[in-house]
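Researcher: Here's the sequence for the chain we discussed earlier.
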Amino acid sequence: MRLSQLEVGEKGIVKEFTDLEMSVKLMEMGCLPGEEIKVERIAPLGDPIAIKVSGYQLSLRKREAYTIVLQ
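Model: Thanks. This is the structure I predict for it:
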């Protein structure tokens, strides 16, 4: 399952990334393998997505969220 498939309130654990360039950026922001992610909000048109990870809120584009594979 990918992060972009979760609904508001759902959680997942980061397993891996599908985009090497994007993975570096995401890991610098706290999205590390093994971290729990919770979807806090989704914009009315579906983009961006607000998630909670490593104790803070982060907004991601749908294409960025698609690169995060969850357990």
